[in-house]
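Posting here for the record, re: erythose-4-phosphate.
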Amino acid sequence: MKFFIDTADIKEIREAAAMGLVDGVTTNPSLVAKTGRKFKDVLVEICDVVKGPVSAEVIATTYDDMMREARDYAALRNNIVVKIPMLPEGMKAVRTCAAEGIKTNVTLCFSATQALLAAKAGAAYISPFVGRLDDVSTDGMQLIGEIVQIYDNYAFDTEVLVASVRHPMHVHQAAMLGAHVATCPLSVLIQLCKHPLTDVGLTKFLADWQKVPK
Ligand code: E4P
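Prediction output follows.
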């Protein structure tokens, strides 16, 4: 299972990369806005640190404009994956990108049928937002199970990229269900390392070590 980091903050990316937890990066307009920097500057800097897939989201909502942005981002670095919203115009752009060898990540997926369409259009990744579904009393992880099964049924190559991850249980369940990727904020990657019994055990080991003659 691959771990991506869900941030546009270069410091966070470097910290997670040092722990070996960055197989790729996902960004979105909200995350980029938090940096206060120009998007292309941020993208290039991320790609200098991370050699795996780096998702760059288009802002356009029409086919022609999406394709203009997609080609522009894809030309920046060869590991850039263009993130395209789940819209009818977006599906056209995903098809053209696939034909041109530009990888895409279809974002804002909230149903299994949306995921089916993205795979048929030739998306490299589908991003179902599990946390936002949980927020509206709908089981996000159930959707992941359904998409994994549908993709298996028809041997689609599209990878299931679990997005809007809020806590370690999302990652645990994603792994149990066979999702290909979980994209997590740095806080969740750090939480994954933690267990209260690890802390208790370490405190005791360090205290006992003081009793060892030196
Ligand atoms: C995914 O690619 C998105 O950037 C992200 O996971 C959305 O997460 P949020 O629902 O916590 O904003």
